[in-house]
Design goal:
Layout: H1 3-9, H2 50-62, E1 67-71, H3 74-82, E2 90-94, H4 99-108, E3 115-119, H5 125-128, E4 135-141, H6 153-163, E5 166-170, H7 175-178, E6 188-192, E7 206-210, H8 213-226, H9 232-242, H10 245-264, E8 269-273, H11 283-289, E9 296-301, H12 306-315, E10 320-321, E11 331-333, H13 345-350, E12 358-361, H14 367-378
Parallel strand pairs: 2-3, 2-4, 4-5, 5-6, 10-11
Antiparallel strand pairs: 1-7, 6-7, 8-9, 9-12, 11-12
Helix pairs in contact: 2-9, 3-4, 10-14, 12-14
Bound molecules: pyridoxal-5'-phosphate.
Length: 379
């Protein structure tokens, strides 16, 4: 089955009771047993739920993986991965990553004796300098948030395999429409399904997909034992979202390209971060590992003035000023005062998050309205 068919049918069977085409929302915590242990594969909804199960099979299908797991949020799914580790273990993570992942690693798991190295991975050979006998996990996010850096997944896989280290890829920004890290040799794919997979800004959810049975069993054990599962209603919504992932992504990419090119030619804009530009430092890697360049675009204004950026995001009318990304509607964010406000100015500026940086999640509205909105807001 090809990707555009998998989004609609992947892992799905018609309901056995009445043949309903969409899986019923099994809004139940428990299941009747005829005799102790006599059940139909479902005992308790933290452990298994048919609606969540349908979604988990869809996650696995679209990522070309064998096993999918759904969690109550993207962070809950990352939390499950880190629980594979033990005190004394070390993790090598990209240094330009989602702020919530950074917070989980440094504020929670550092306290449990796990050591994190945050490094620039735009050149994958850097990773090897930090590998030692305690290294158990490499954490990759690509494209990164909000600087749109690209990390070479294949080159990272080589290093991970050579040293027998697990490689996890946060595939939230790219989605399996653009890149499929398991096909490139990664061990775990993680998603904030809150973003493009759900696609309608109406649900918070996380996903993991793996190929290896033993790894899947361990993660399932953690999912059930720690209990950060999602409910059947949310499972239904994300399953519905995935059915249009391919056509939404196609439009996100088209609109993203037009917005990036418009901003790049604007006299008041200093720099635009988008992996589709030939001038992007890892453009060639993006071209080889991604089908297209996505709908996320960041930019800074000439003069790098904090107030200019605030004025622009406040003036936008079609774009909504809000956290999050990946929904059908266009959103704009100002990392320095929003997502990255808790990071000291000096620290955030090291990775490029300067005062005038604006991040756009370009939606699937009519492109003329999006360009007109940016034109009037930038002035
Ligand atoms: C939003 C996000 C997360 C966290 O997911 P939640 O669903 O908000 O818990 C992790 N990684 C990336 C890249 C994200 O954008």
């Amino acid at each position: 089955m090809k990707f555009n068919t998998k989004t609609i049918h992947g892992g799905q069977e018609h309901d056995i009771a009445y043949g309903s085409v969409m899986p019923p929302i099994y809004q139940t915590s428990t299941y009747a047993q005829s005799t102790p242990g006599g059940h139909k594969g479902y005992e308790y909804s933290r452990s298994q739920n048919p609606t969540r199960h349908a979604l988990e099979k869809a996650f696995a299908s679209i990522e070309n993986g064998n096993y999918g797991l759904a969690f109550g949020s993207g962070l809950a799914s990352i939390d499950a991965i880190i629980k594979l580790l033990k005190p004394g273990d070390e993790v090598i993570s990209t240094n330009d990553l989602y702020g919530g992942s950074y917070r989980l690693f440094t504020k929670i798991y550092s306290e449990f004796g796990i050591k994190f190295h945050f490094i620039g991975m735009q050149n994958a050979t850097n990773i090897e300098d930090f590998v030692n006998s305690k290294t158990k996990l490499i954490w990759v996010e690509t494209p990164t948030n909000p600087m749109m850096n690209i990390i070479d997944i294949k080159a990272t896989v080589k290093i991970a395999k050579k040293h027998d280290i697990l490689l996890a890829v946060d595939n939230t920004f790219a989605t399996p429409y653009l890149q499929r890290p398991l096909d490139l040799g990664a061990d775990i794919i993680m998603h904030s399904a809150t973003k493009y997979l759900g696609g309608h800004s109406d649900v918070v959810m996380g996903a993991l997909v793996v190929n290896d049975k033993e790894l899947a069993d361990k993660l399932y054990f953690i999912q059930n034992a720690s209990g950060a599962v999602c409910g059947p209603q949310d499972s239904f919504l994300v399953l519905r979202g995935i059915k249009t992932l391919h056509i939404r992504m196609q439009r996100h990419c088209e609109n993203g390209k037009t917005v990036a090119e418009y901003l790049n030619s604007h006299p008041k804009i200093e720099k635009v971060y988008w992996p589709g530009f030939e001038s992007h430092p890892n453009h060639e890697i993006a071209k080889s590992q991604m089908k297209d360049f996505g709908g996320m675009v960041s930019f800074v204004t000439k003069g790098n003035n904090y107030q200019d950026a605030i004025r622009i995001v406040e003036n936008l009318k079609v774009f909504t000023l809000a956290e999050s990304l990946g929904g059908v509607e266009s959103l704009a964010g100002h990392p320095a005062s929003m997502t990255h406000a808790s990071i000291p100015k000096e620290e955030r500026e090291k990775t490029g998050v300067v005062d005038s940086l604006i991040r756009l999640s370009v939606g699937i509205e009519d492109i003329d309205d999006l360009i007109a909105d940016l034109r009037q807001a930038i002035g």
